[in-house]
Every structure is written in structure tokens, then in C-alpha cells.
From TrEMBL:
It comes from Paragemmobacter aquarius. The keyword ATP-binding applies. Keywords: ATP-binding, Nucleotide-binding, Transport. Residues 12-253 form the ABC transporter domain. InterPro entries: AAA+_ATPase, ABC_transp_ATP-bind, ABC_transporter-like_ATP-bd, ABC_transporter-like_CS, P-loop_NTPase. Gene3D superfamilies: P-loop containing nucleotide triphosphate hydrolases. This is ABC transporter ATP-binding protein. The keyword Transport applies.
Length: 266
């Protein structure tokens, strides 16, 4: 299977504003420390780690919302590491992001139809109305929802709108960043089922960021475990749960509540 993403020795450092001196530049804080991995086309890859592990920062580098400090990121054979915005624009349609908080990522002054149509118009798609209708159908929302506003929707419905906006552009890759963490258990299951179906029906490649290994186990074929900006495991998900190699992975697994106190993950 060909690789959609190839990441080599990826590094990213940001100014540490909590330690800004009175004179001179703020010291640099290293967030990502030499990461190397691939994401094959059609794969569902989990990126997991605790708070401060660098997982969301890594996601933003993959879709070039952040520019790396070093290393190389290739998307479908194109080096996007330091492309300027004019060179990135034709590629942006092909990698999309779904955000953790749909309410903050959806314009409250626009109806759902306008929200989904906006990136289609930006990328100069034809038949915008038809594409909006198909996107709503793909995520299981009635066509009448096009006239509704974000505040009129439940959390799960708002997240479906975010997914519809992403898939309307017919991307190759979607980054989902903690998109079920704010939902109740029932809505979480529905969104995960929807993502599974969309991956199969649309041939998507998906990277799913989460702090919750139980969600990763449910959805992802392969899991990358990040700790303090370093990859500590990159393995088939079933193998990782059966025999975690890193102490940090075992800590994450031990933190998952089990319905049966005698149950073990293996």
C-alpha cells in the first residue's frame, strides 16, 4: 500500500511565552522531537497521548496549520514542509481537519448550508448546492438542516456538520482532533460508526487524535503513542493492546476504566 504521508525527523519548537525575559527573545520550547513515521493511503491511524504530549501540534503540522522547525513532511509525494500559502492552496482541499469543539469552529451567524458551502466556493467547486446536499446525506442529516443554525443543533449534530464540511471537498485525508471527547457515550458511538462508514465508502485516509485509548482501539488499525514530543510506540493497534512495549503505554492502558474489575486488555 502506497504511503499518503511520509514524516522524517520532524521537529517543532515554539517560543515559551511563560518564560519571556524582559529583554530579548523568549526561549524556545521543543514540542516535537524528531518524529518519523508513515501513513498509508486508506489507513485509519490513531495518535494518542496525554496532555502536553504534542499530539494536537503534530496534527496541525500534518495539515500545515503549523510549519515545522526541521525535518520533512511529504503528502502524496509532495514535500509540503515549507511550502508558502500560494503553493499550498491547491493541496489544502485534499487534507481537511475536524476540530474538537464544533461550536467554536462553526460560524454562529451562518446556516448549516452556508457553512458547508463556504469552502466549496473558496476552492471554486461547481454544483455547490448539490455537493452540500450530498454531504448532509453522507453524515445522516436531513436536507432541512441546511437552514438551521449551529445553536439549534445538539453536540453530535454539530460534529456531523463539521464532518460534512470536511468531506464536501472530497479530500484524501482527514485529521480528526479529539472530536468525540465532548460527546456523551451514545453520540460518541454514532460518530465513530459514521467515520468508519465514510472511510469505507469514500476511500478516506484518517488520522484520529485522542487521549482515550478505548476510542482508539474501537476505530484505528494502527496507533502512534506520543509522550513529551517523542514516539514511544508505533504499532498495529491489536498488538499494542495485547503487549504494550513502553511503560508510558502501559500507564495509559491502566488509566482506562474497565466495566469488569477482573478484565484485562490482553
Amino acid at each position: 500500500m502506497a504511503d499518503l504521508y511520509t514524516v522524517e525527523n520532524l521537529r517543532l519548537s515554539l517560543a515559551d511565552m511563560t518564560r519571556k525575559p524582559l529583554l530579548g527573545a523568549a526561549p524556545r520550547l521543543e514540542i516535537l522531537k524528531g518524529l518519523s513515521f508513515t501513513i498509508p493511503k486508506g489507513a485509519v491511524v490513531g495518535i494518542v497521548g496525554g496532555s502536553g504530549s504534542g499530539k494536537s501540534t503534530l496534527g496541525r503540522v500534518l495539515v500545515r496549520l503549523l510549519e515545522p522547525s526541521g525535518g520533512r513532511v511529504s503528502f502524496d509525494g509532495v514535500d509540503i514542509t515549507h511550502l508558502d500559502e500560494s503553493a499550498l492552496r491547491p493541496l489544502r482541499r485534499r487534507f481537511q481537519m475536524i476540530f474538537q469543539d464544533p461550536m467554536s469552529s462553526l460560524n454562529p451567524r451562518h446556516g448549516v448550508g452556508t457553512i458547508i458551502a463556504e469552502p466549496l466556493r473558496l476552492h471554486q467547486f461547481d454544483d455547490v448546492a448539490g455537493r452540500v446536499a450530498r454531504a448532509l446525506d453522507h453524515v445522516g442529516l436531513p436536507q432541512g438542516f441546511a437552514a438551521r443554525y449551529p445553536h439549534e443543533l445538539s453536540g453530535g449534530q454539530r460534529q456531523r456538520v463539521g464532518i460534512a464540511r470536511a468531506i464536501a471537498l472530497e479530500p484524501d485525508f482527514i485529521l480528526a482532533d479529539e472530536i468525540v471527547s465532548g460527546l456523551d457515550v451514545s453520540s460518541q458511538a454514532q460518530v465513530l460508526n459514521l467515520l468508519e462508514r465514510l472511510v469505507a465508502d469514500l476511500g478516506l485516509t484518517l488520522a484520529f487524535i485522542s487521549h482515550d485509548l478505548s476510542v482508539i482501539r474501537r476505530l484505528c488499525q494502527r496507533t502512534i503513542v506520543l509522550h513529551q514530543g517523542v514516539i514511544v510506540e508505533d504499532r498495529i493497534t491489536a498488538d499494542l493492546f495485547a503487549d504494550p512495549q513502553a511503560a508510558y503505554t502501559r500507564e495509559l492502558l491502566d488509566a482506562i476504566p474497565l466495566p469488569d474489575p477482573d478484565q484485562v486488555w490482553a
